[in-house]
Each structure stands twice: as C-alpha cells, then as structure tokens.
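ASSEMBLY PREDICTION REQUEST
Request ID: AP-0331
Submitted by: J.K., bench scientist
Number of chains: two
Total residues: 775
Priority: normal
Notes: Please return the full assembly, not individual chains.
Input sequences:
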Amino acid sequence: MKWATLYLLFALRLSAQVPYERILQSAAQPENWLTYSGAYHSQRYSTLDQITRANINHLKVAWMYQIKALHKVETSPLVFDGVMYISEPPSDVTALDLRTGRPIWTYRRPIPQVPVCCGQVNRGVAALDDQLFIGTLDSHLVALDMKTGRVRWDVEVADYKTANSITLAPLAIKDKVIIGIAGAEYGIRGFLDAYDAKTGKRAWRFWTVPGPGESGNETWSGDSWQHGGAPTWLTGSYDPEANLLYWGTGNPGPNYRGNLRKGDNLYSDCLLALDADTGKLKWHFQFTPHDVNDIDANEIPVLVDIQFRGKPRKLVLFGNRNGFYYILDRLTGEFLLAKQFATQTWAKSIDEHGRPIPNPATAPSPEGATVYPDDDGATNWFSPSYNPQTGLFYQNCREKGATYFLTEAPYIPGRQFLGASRRSLAGVEPWGALRALDALTGEKRWEFPLPTPPWSGILSTAGGLVFSGDMEGNFFALDAADGKLLWRLQTGGAVWAAPITYVSEGKQFVAIAAGSAIVALALD
Amino acid sequence: MRITLPIAAMLFGVCVASAQAPATPEDLAAGERLYSTQCSYCHGPRGEGGRGATLTRPRLSHAPDAQSLFEVIEHGIPGTEMPGHWFTPREIWQVVAFVESLGRVAPQKIAGDPTRGATLYAGKGGCSHCHTVNGHGGAVGADLTDIGARRSPSYLRESLIEPEAAVPDGFLQLELLTRDGRRIKGVRLNEDTFSIQIRDLAGNFHSFFRRELVEINKQPGKSPMPSYQNTFTASELDDLVFYLDSLRGNR
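STATUS: Completed
Returned structure:
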C-alpha cells in the first residue's frame, strides 16, 4: 500500500502536467500556485490557513536561492508537483526543487542590447499541459519542456530593434498563450497577442492603437497612431464563464507632448475586455483619456463576484496608477465607482460616467508643471490583493510628485519618445503606504506607512494575514483586519516582487523574491 | 551586409549626432533655453555652480570631452545628485554646445590667504569637528576633500553665511525622542519601515527600532551647521573660501 502510494506520487511527479482544467480549479487546490496571480481572477488571495495570526512568530526561512544576476528580480513563482518555476532576469527560467531550493534545470537566453525604460526585468512564466512559457526581453515567446527546460518552440512576437520588449508573465488559457508588449517610452504601437500553445503559431492580435479605418483611429490626430504606445506589459485576468480576457493598457506616445496626438488616444490607459478565442473587443473603459502624465493602466484587474448595492454583480476592481480605485461591471464595462486612494492633482474630479475632468495646470509645460503622482504612479504594476474574508482590497500606494518640463519629441527608432524632462521636488520627502480599502466603496479602512514609495506586491491569506515588502529589504506580515504588524524579516534586498503561498510536504510556505534571492518560509 | 531600415535609421541618427558640425547660434540659443529650465537650478544660471558642479572651466572632471558630456547629460552620474535627462540627441548636443561655451567664461576671482584659511578651518571655525578633509575629521557634514572642484567660491561663501540655503541630499536633520526620555539630534544615515539609524552631532552612531521612539521629527531643509556670518570677519571669510576652493581631491 505504502509503495503503491509512493509510486503514484512518483508517477504524478514525472508526468507533471497542468491541463487547462487544472488551472480552472485553482481555488480547489490552494497547495499550488498555477498562474502569475494565483488564479484567473487575480485576487492573489489564498485559502491556506496553517500560518495564522497566532503562530506567525514561528515563521522562519526554510531555504534561499540566489539568482546570479544584478538586475531587479520581479518574478512571481509558479508552484506545482514538487517544483517551483521562476524567471530570472533578463529572460532565463529555473526549476527549483521545492524541498531544498536546489535548481533542477535552467534555461539561459543571451539577450542583445534592447532599449528598455525600466530595467532588464521579467515577472514570471506561465504553465500549460507539459510546457512552460516565457516572454523574452528581445520580444520572443518561448515554450519550454516543463521537465527539462529544453526549447520546444521560439517565435518572434515583435522587433526588439524598434524597442519592443517583453517583461510580463504570459497567461495560458485553454489551448492558447496570451502575451503583451512593452516599449511605449520608445514609440511602439501596442498590441495583445495569442499563440497556439502546441505550435507557437499566432492565433490572433489585437492592436491597442487602431489603424486607419478601424474604430478608435479617429481619436488620434494625423499619423500619431503609428507610434501611439498603449502597451500591454502586465498580465491580465480571465473570466472562463464569459470567456473574456481583461487586460490593462499603458500610456500613449509621446508620453508628455499631448499636442502631437490630439484626441482621446484610444485604447491607451484602458481596461480592455476581449473575447479569448478571437481577440475581438467586447468593451473598453478608458481611465485617463489623452494622458499627458504617463499614468499607465498596467495594473492587475481583480475579478470578484459579490453583492454590490443590493444586487449580485460580476465586478472588476482596479487600483489605477492615476490615483483612483475603480469598480466596473465586468460583463458590460459599466462604470460603477471611482474613489481617490492617494494624492493626485492631475484630475479635478471624475464625472458620473467615469471620465476625469483634467487639471490643465498639471500638464507638462516649458516653465515646468508639478503633478502628483509622478510618472511612477500612485500605484504601479505590483499586485494588490482582494480578501473575501475581510472584504478589503489591499493596495501599495506611492506618495510622490515631480515637475515636468516640455522638450522635443521627434520619433527616432529605438530612442526615447517622451517630450518632457523630469525634476524631483526639492525639500519634499516622498513616502508610501500599504492601504486597506473597502472593496465596495474604496474608503480607506487603515494604512501601514512605509518610508519609501514601495514596489512590492501583496498576498493575503485565510490565516488572517497580509504579506508585503519594502524598498529597504523588509518582508512583513500584517493582521488582515486592522493592519497591525505581526511579523517581519530583514532580507537585505529590496522587494520588487509579489509574494505567493503553497504547500510542500504538508506544510504551508510563503515565498518572495527579495534582492537577488528567492526566500521560502515556513513554520519551524 | 544588409542593414534593416530601423538600424540604418539608428546609425543615421547617431552619425548625425556625433559628426559635430560647429554649433549654430540657433543651437546655442536652444541649448541655453534647455539649460535654463533643466540645469541652472543646480549649476547656476551661467554655470557658476551651486548644488551642482561649477561648469565654467575648460575641462570638467566627469566629462573631459563633448562625447562624455553627452553621456553624463543623458544618463546622469551614479552615486551623485546628477540625474539622467529625457532629451533627444539633438537637444543633448545643443546643451553640450551651450555648456562648452561656458568653459570660456573667466573663473571667479577670489581674494584671500589660503594658509590663514586652513588655520581658521582647523581652529576658530572648528570645521573639522563635522567635516572631513583627506580622511581626517568628522562625518556629520559633507566630505570636503574635493569641494573646490565641485562647488564655486560663491556657493562656498553662501554655505558659510547661510548653510540652510542648499542642504545637500543625504544629510536630513532629525530629532528623536526615545521612550526613556532622551532627545537626540543628528543626521539620518538610514531609515526603513521598522528602524532608523542616525549620527548625532558629536559623531556618535545610534540605531533605534521605531517602537523604541516616541517621536521622529524630520527637518528637511534644516542644517546643524551654524552661520559663520558673525564668527568671521569679511577678510577671514575670504581666506576660508580661498582655502576651500584649493581643496581639489587626493587622488
């Protein structure tokens, strides 16, 4: 009997497979972490409750794995069948033994000189069936054999020489791999792609900047759509029932010179709802029409089914870089709520349709215009967490402004396409906070202050815990109900990533990338 | 070899940029416009220096030639307060041309006796209590070993008379009140979510967890340095400024 069980475990491990059906059942198997945000709804919440408020003082480092690269580590690992899969910067993949943290295999990819705004980073891999998928800095999508790390196929998504780059974790759905693109600081034309997981053949492409004759092209003056940006550099979410993909888009290009691209500039700074089979647009909601402050909507769309204003609703919650927290109906795109969660001066208000009334004094000018937030945003790509137990939406927030001076913005392939230069504010210390918002109203319930504006994601668990990190290397746990500090660890490296949780050999673990290390923690 | 269109365009862009035709008056005017909004804040309206380096010299220590000046303007100088800039190559070359024209401005004339200045620094001024020259002295204030290469005489004079006119980054003054009732004034070395490390005005290091503190009073723009306006005579100030201007580094 014992041998039979062992054999079964062994066989299961060898045939490590992640069929689509298994990803659909993420909620029923919290011992795994199967997608970038843990499940298609992207709540980054786990029902695991071994680690609790009462015992968290026993949380200790079980192992650490050091990545041999000097770039920022933004990876959110996947975990299943006894293995952790991480990306390493710039575009490598390593499989780690879950018991020991020792590497099983590594896929290494030499990367040419690629113009990137914000570091040679990668946020993780996707899994489907017996393959892993990584988007590379030089804009390829690569499928690896899950057991060996050997390349199954490698396709070009876009031309890196014109500054197209890929930093996000792909999302695997049904038989397809969804991948987005970065490079709006360099005048790319954005898109979202789907590839056949077996062959690497492109299934569809949705241009986030419509071409001539397409609906939305009229929101760009002249030929400005050609370098219109609207990148898709952060992993979206998926509603299997509606078969809709939810994906945020970034700034229009050039970032700061709005007079070169008059109009609303669709579909920049939008949340898109696309048919997952065809890539056809079901609806869009533009948070920041005609953005001149680089306030991308590349944040995590969090899907929630909940009673809202007396009715059961299918919602998407969205903490936006522009400083507002939004609630939309995710089947229709109907605007339901916007509530400010951090200092912002770019908008005077948001009207009843969700359209902002911009403050013209904050548009970059030759003399310099000061605006909150700065171009790093009131929040950014780092993951929030929605906790159904507390009904709170946890969001890391940045309190930082800057002054922007208009400059020229000619399009030169591979060069920055910005139109302003930035100066930090003298005599003002920026800061940040982990804020807990009432998910249904956006009202702040509590905050945990941070001395430096953060870049860390958040995990919350059924153990009543919220995990996050700071720029000075602390990884910490707060009480999910009131934000009280319960536990902390000085890791020695800034946290630029989001935590995950899983079970290994019957014990709950929490893992985080800090500095160049992956740190796995469990109760001693 | 076949060159793809984007690469050709990039090469073209770089060639145009580095095959430096003499700057036209229009280029110089454009460079001055950019300089006045982006650079003068730290380097002074005519490159006389301030919070940033003095630019009115034929050879800049971080940018001995035009190409390296281009790099410094584009990418900044890591570990200093000089940031990178989001200019186009053309704009950078225009700023380079303007900055190079500043090098032909005659350096500020200063009067005084540097030997007497050194004596005042060590004696009456008590400067070495907080400042370091060639590895000797305190660490509450900035290292002055090469201050003459980094700051203009007028900036140095202003710093002596009104230290709070421009407090450099990395010297945030703060006052702490501990749970056991001690008040400690000093300069912040480091701060994170749970702890803070400071150097007090006597140069002693202190480390506190936040729970050990009742109050953290940050005083941005404040400086522990007193004004020397009434300590020194006008000619003594000249001597001290001359001495500081003579400090050009030890390597």
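REVIEWER COMMENTS: Residues 1-19 of chain B have pLDDT under 50 and may be disordered.
SIGN-OFF: pending second reviewer
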